[in-house]
Amino acid sequence: MNADQAYQRFVRPILFSLSAEAAHDLAIRNLRAASSLPSVLRTLERFKPLPKPRTVFGLAFPNPLGLAAGFDKNGVAVPAWAALGFGFVEIGTVTAKTQPGNPKPRIFRYPEEGALINRLGFNNDGADAIAKRLRALRQSGRWPAIPVGINIGKSKVTRIEEAVADYLYSFRLLAPLADYVVLNISSPNTPGLRSLQEQDALEQLLRAIREANQNGPRPVLVKIAPDLSLTELEQIIATAEQNGVAGIIATNTTIDHSSIPASRDQTGGLSGRPLREKSTEFVRAITSRSRLPVIASGGIFDAESAREKLEAGAQLLQVYTGYVYRGPGLLREISSAL
Ligand SMILES: Cc1cc2nc3c(=O)[nH]c(=O)nc-3n(C[C@H](O)[C@H](O)[C@H](O)COP(=O)(O)O)c2cc1C
Fold first, then answer.
1. What is the DSSP letter of 205?
2. Ligand 1 binding site (Cβ under 6 Å of any ligand atom)
């Protein structure tokens, strides 16, 4: 039995008998425990896909398939993600302040549509605690040999006018621990956050981050929404290029829920299969207008959807919802087809 079959037959039925968030918490608890057990990590490594190395924004990736932000918000299972075969992992979104997120339930499954809707609202331990955890991991010698990105966002209690200082706080603490940093300006679940995609606000944010990124600079990426107009996207590309951004992550979840029957709809960001086409269009729109490297995220479920993103010009790929539905076999399937 291969990893895909084992996940489909045994692991997924257990996880899917729980609520989406309880399943997620259980998976994270196990991977967190595994992260400090070398013998378990070695067992997980059996799922590892073949190496397909590439270098993007100066970093060496053993393969182009990464874990998207939001899965390991607190950076508790970094060694396990590497052992499972991810070519890179993005932790976060981390905010300057610890936050509980929105009331539960706040993650919803749509198996028929291959989708999830979430309105978690950046529940996370906060930049101080996460920096401490990552520092300890570095000192332990268990830091993995894959790039680790840290995705940062605005704390809910911080007014949008003070967003720059809030991002700067997290950036200063976390950038030294990260291989790359992502400015998340596109989650639909923090009121006002997406307004940071507007030209003046983005310019201000990028200038401040650039100034703070002088010593041992890290590649800084921006993660954008799939709900932007083409004009807005073009402005973001121009602003990013003018301000030393290293790449763009396209895309975050969408607020377009037209693929979900109204009777089952929920407020939040939609991810998975219904997002595939839109996010691929964004990858194509960016790579046809700019040489900025793109990390594609949205609806990667199999080798074909992964290939589609690469053909649209993406350099790297990230999975979230596809991994929930397909499990570790997804990496092997995509990697062997690339
Ligand atoms: C439950 C859940 C939580 C997420 N949390 C975050 C987050 O904290 N920060 C972020 O940038 N993206 C977050 N995302 C978005 C994913 O990183 C990804 O960009 C998006 O889901 C599209 O990819 P997918 O179709 O493979 O899921 C989250 C997605 C899901 C489903």
1. H
2. 68-70, 73, 92-93, 107, 116, 118, 120, 122, 151, 184, 187, 223, 252-253, 271-272, 275, 297-300, 319-322
pTM as predicted: 0.96
Q: Whose CA is nearest to atom 11 of ligand 1?
A: 69
Q: Which of 146, 217, 220, 155 is nearest to 182 (CA)?
A: 220
State the Cα–Cα distance between residues 321 and 328, nearest whole angstrom.
12
Alpha carbon distances (Å) from 320 to 116, 120, 133, 161, 279: 10, 15, 23, 31, 14
Ligand 1 centroid–CA 275 distance in Å is 11
State whether the Cα torsion 111-35-97-26 is positive or negative. Answer: positive
In the annotation, is 187 catalytic?
yes
* pLDDT (tens digit per residue) in 263-321: 999 999 999 999 999 999 999 999 999 999 999 999 999 999 999 999 999 999 999 99
Predicted confidence (pLDDT) per residue in 225-234, tens digit: 999 999 999 9
Say which of 35, 187, 279, 335 is annotated catalytic: 187
